[in-house]
Design brief:
- The structure holds two protein chains of two kinds.
- Chain A has 14 helices and no strands.
- Chain A is mainly α.
- The mean pLDDT of chain A is 90.
- Chain B folds into two domains: 211 residues, D-Maltodextrin-Binding Protein, domain 2, CATH 3.40.190; 217 residues, Periplasmic binding protein-like II (D-Maltodextrin-Binding Protein, domain 2).
- Classes of the chains: A mainly alpha, B alpha/beta.
- Chains A and B meet through helix 13 of A and helix 3 and helix 19 of B.
């Protein structure tokens, strides 16, 4: 039947066009179709990557095009790995990634579990919960900056109302101890719904009959949760953790809008350091080396994680 | 029929001709790039006269200060043709000259008889020359600016506050002449209730992202004895940048931040400072002089309520102020350099400069600022003149950006985040700056 249709189409093809196409194999045709995408990928992804690798071994500065570019060997890499400030930025990033993922996963999964109960109005509440995720990070960053404002911000007044501390003493963005948490709170507020959505998909994919069988075996709710719900939703949770981990590792916009890396360098995550080196200090070679190190770190960690994820899925 | 053809032909020719003319006019339009701030609006107004005189249209590309350097340095580095004229920051001059971004103006100045002797000397060195103190000109001084202070004259003149202040500190409450006095006044006003509202001592620069805290801290450090390098041996910084006097200056800046700024003012620069002053939060306000015309006109804090003072003296009587402001340059990648030079020639004119000052720009031309009527022309004119006489500027080296980033980090870490000591911060700064100059092959 399929062959007949193909024959009909071939017969219907005008002779000049048929002559032109005749001679191209299926494989050739496939290459013909995917080549624009491959060329685009090569031009905007692969070439810049290799170019950045090349630059990372040089002293090139984009703001001094007339200067002779010298090959520095591994000097940029050695300098980065021996730079205390870079390690501090990496620690700050790790702290930020760890706490945001932990909070978003716990709260996101809890919300998904509650929404999955399908209570009255659950669709409405799902939509409400999703609102922060739909906002632009620039908008979120700006309005949270006002909320955190010690003299006029609602956040400071809310904390003051609960704790009795004067609002002007609640300096979320100026205090060295509080500033990292200020960013963690905003990121958690904005991205927990995303984790919730993925977890909800996981929970809804668990077949009902498994719970019915557990009921027959008189398994308690607690037992059902630990033996059915959590293991079966785990690949989805891990997927959410992977997505958020990669996103938060390169977090820039929220930190830039809320604290600009300050006070001092207490919230200066790796991406802010990279931006400063690349586009403010114009140390293109040095920042390329830093970008390659970050890329290798994220790529390596993500690979290990994906292997673990696959193992969980196969269980 | 013939006449109909003639009419049609005539109309077609007229339309073609008018399109051509409009295309020519369009092609002659110049684009001037600058920061988005009050003086830029004054320049738009002023430039209408240039269009009237020459027929050359003016377009403007103004970018907020926070993105100004990023945006336009990217434009210059990529050899972009967006800007025909650029009013670039004073510290860009070294990089822009050495990397060929700006057209050298010496021959043009000679041809048009524009003499740099006609401009305030500090602005020529600061905005036009590279290398510094050599007759190599890359810009025409366009907008004089300097860090100074405003204060609430109405609060300072309240008898009950004057009495209380005199009893507490033993001298009359007035605009401070030394940094010690400034701190005493700031402490006096900190968290004081005025008209039922809590007010604070002073708004100072603490911004981390671009150049804020460096401009603020340097403004104080100069008068405490800070020097960028050994005057006899260029780039020798140890013992100058981190001298005992510099350490004292930085400690003072931190003490002022800790004692006397409004809550949450940890990332404050020009805009935040203006907001703090306009909203009646602070008694004193550190800012560039360009903000003064706007504050003077403000209904709530301007008029008789505002006063201006020059950056105070340090412990040894030294008195300096951080230079701001910019020169106007012709971008070497522009296809309309001839028209751009016409604009520079027009802008250097005495009458244009006088109008520039009257519209809210700060002229650098001697004939304007040395006019006997100048000090009384605006309430802030004298403070501006006095401030311009004591200016110092940050490095204007091609590597100014990394040099600035290093000081931003070191100062913010110490002053705002309270990490380490002032000595650690300045020792670290010497280390960073030495590394940068070594990378540049200058040491």
């Amino acid at each position: 039947m399929l062959n007949r249709t193909a024959d009909n189409v071939a017969r219907a093809t005008p002779e000049p066009l048929a002559k032109k196409i005749r001679g191209i194999s299926d494989k050739g045709l496939a290459w013909l179709f995917i080549s624009p995408t491959i060329l685009l990928l090569l031009a905007i992804n692969i070439f810049p990557l290799f170019w950045a690798i090349y630059l990372s071994f040089t002293n090139y500065r984009a703001n001094r095009p007339n200067e002779v570019v010298k090959n520095l060997g591994l000097a940029n890499y050695r300098r980065i790995l021996g730079d205390q400030d870079i390690w501090i930025a990496m620690q700050t990033t790790a702290h930020f990634v760890f706490w945001t993922i932990l909070l978003q996963t716990v709260i996101g999964f809890t919300l998904a579990w509650l929404i999955d109960r399908k209570f009255r109005g659950h669709a409405f509440w799902t939509t409400i919960i999703l609102v922060p995720m739909m906002l632009s990070p620039a908008v979120v960053g700006n309005f949270w900056r006002f909320l955190y404002e010690p003299q006029i911000g609602l956040f400071a007044y809310a904390v003051s109302f609960v704790t009795g501390i004067p609002p002007t003493n609640v300096q979320m963005l100026s205090n060295v101890e509080l500033a990292p948490w200020a960013i963690i709170i905003v990121d958690t507020w904005m991205w927990t719904p995303y984790v919730m959505l993925i977890c909800l998909a996981g929970l809804r994919s668990i077949p009902e009959y498994i719970y019915e069988a557990a009921e027959v075996d008189r398994a308690s709710n607690w037992r059902q949760f630990w033996s059915i719900t959590l293991p079966m939703a785990l690949p989805f949770i891990m997927l959410a953790v992977l997505f958020r981990g990669i996103e938060n590792f390169k977090m820039f916009d929220m930190v830039n809008l809320l604290t600009g890396g300050g006070p001092g360098s207490t919230t200066e995550v790796a991406s802010i350091t990279l931006k400063r080196q690349a586009f403010e200090s114009w140390r293109t070679g040095y920042s390329s080396a830093f970008a390659i190190i970050l890329f290798v770190a994220v790529f390596g960690l993500a690979n290990i994680y994906v292997k673990a994820l696959n193992k969980v899925k196969q269980r | 029929m013939k006449s109909t053809w003639k009419l049609a032909l005539g109309l077609a020719s007229a339309i073609t001709a008018s399109t051509a003319v409009s295309n020519v006019a369009h092609a002659e339009d110049l684009t001037l790039c600058w920061a988005a701030w009050d003086p830029a609006n004054a320049l738009v107004e002023l430039s209408k006269d240039f269009t009237k005189e020459t027929g050359i249209g003016m377009k403007f590309e103004f970018v907020p200060w926070t993105n100004y350097a990023d945006r336009f340095l990217n434009e210059l580095n990529s050899h972009g043709k967006l800007c025909d004229l650029i009013i670039g920051d004073s510290q860009w001059i070294g990089g822009a000259a050495e990397n060929g971004h700006y057209v050298k103006l010496n021959d043009f100045f000679d041809k048009e008889k524009i003499s740099m002797d006609d401009f305030v000397p500090a602005t020529v060195v600061g905005y036009s020359e590279w290398p510094k103190n050599t007759p190599n000109y890359w810009a025409l001084p366009a907008m004089g600016d300097v860090v100074g202070w405003t204060y609430r004259k109405d609060w300072f003149s309240r008898p009950e506050l004057q009495k209380e202040f005199k009893e507490k500190y033993g001298w009359d409450l007035a605009a401070p002449t030394t940094f010690d006095q400034l701190k005493q006044i700031a402490e006096f006003f900190q968290k004081r209730q005025i008209d039922g509202k809590t007010v604070y001592g002073a708004s100072i620069y603490t911004e981390r992202g671009s150049e804020g805290i460096t401009m603020g801290a340097m403004d104080v450090l100069y008068s405490f004895g800070f020097q960028y390098e050994n005057p006899k041996k260029p780039y020798e910084m140890d013992g100058f940048v981190n001298s005992e006097k510099s350490v004292k200056g930085l400690e003072f800046y931190k003490a002022l931040y800790d004692c006397c700024t409004p809550p949450g003012a940890s990332n404050s620069y020009m805009g935040e400072g203006v907001d703090a002053f306009k909203s009646g939060q602070v008694a004193m306000h550190m800012n560039f002089a360009f903000t003064w015309p706007g504050l003077q006109k403000d209904e709530n804090v301007g008029g008789d309520k505002i006063g201006y003072f020059v950056n105070p003296k340090g412990p040894d009587g030294d008195q300096f102020a951080q230079l701001g402001g910019q020169g106007i340059s012709v971008v070497s990648y522009s296809d309309k350099q001839e028209s751009a030079l016409k604009y520079i020639k027009w802008f250097a004119n005495k009458d244009v400069q006088a109008k520039w000052w009257s519209l809210g720009g700060y002229s650098c031309l001697n004939s304007v600022v040395k006019d006997p009527k100048f000090p009384s022309s605006q309430p802030y004119a004298q403070a501006f003149l006095d401030s311009m006489a004591i200016v110092k500027d940050f490095w204007a080296e091609p590597s100014y950006a990394p040099l600035l980033q290093a000081s931003q980090k070191r100062f913010h870490d110490y002053v705002v985040a309270g990490q380490g000591s002032a000595k650690d911060a300045l020792d670290g700064l010497v280390k960073d700056w030495t590394q940068i100059f070594q990378d540049d092959g200058k040491m």
